[in-house]
Specification:
- It is a single chain.
- 30% of the residues lie in helices and 42% in strands.
- By secondary structure, it is α+β, with helices and mostly antiparallel strands.
- The protein has a domain of 84 residues: ATP Synthase, domain 1 (Sandwich).
- A five-stranded mixed beta sheet has the order 2-1-9-8-5, with no helix packed on it. A five-stranded antiparallel beta sheet has the order 4-3-6-7-10, with helices on one face.
- The relative contact order is 0.15.
- Pfam families: ATP-synt_DE_N.
- GO terms for molecular function: ATP binding; hydrolase activity; proton-transporting ATP synthase activity, rotational mechanism.
Length: 136
């Protein structure tokens, strides 16, 4: 592997890519504690816990993401981060409120979707039961 000053970072959600860009440093949190990655860091795979993901770019910009649980894979100069949910903010002090509000809305939608799926499954079971009675 060649020595590099930057790495390519992808922050992926189930529905879209939230961040795709170069970085000089990344900070995250795994179940066993926080960690940092530089471009020439050894390859690794680690689970992520709900926390703050910090991506520092070469121009000095720091991108701050509140993330849900996920997985980080670093191979070569490429870092892939896959999480269920994430929000970006410039204000670390307001991160807790932003995450709570954003994730709460998503949890309500997920709960409604699970309820609808349960109703569909129950209806399908009833229909199969009525078909079985009609045949017997």
């Amino acid at each position: 592997m060649t020595m590099a000053t930057e790495m390519r970072v992808y922050l992926r959600l189930p529905s879209r890519i939230m961040f795709d860009g170069s970085a000089v440093r990344l900070r995250g949190e795994a179940p066993n504690g926080s960690f940092g990655i530089l471009p020439n860091h050894v390859d690794l795979v680690t689970p992520l816990v709900s926390s703050v993901l910090l991506i520092a770019q070469a121009d000095g910009t720091e991108r701050i993401f509140g993330i849900d649980e996920g997985l980080l894979v670093k191979k070569g100069h490429r870092v892939e981060v896959a999480v269920r949910r994430a929000v970006e903010t410039d204000d670390l002090d307001q991160m807790r409120d932003i995450v709570r509000d954003s994730f709460a809305g998503l949890e309500d939608e997920e709960r409604a979707a699970r309820a609808a799926l349960s109703r569909l499954e129950a209806d399908m079971v009833r229909r199969f039961a009525s078909l079985r009675k009609a045949q017997g």
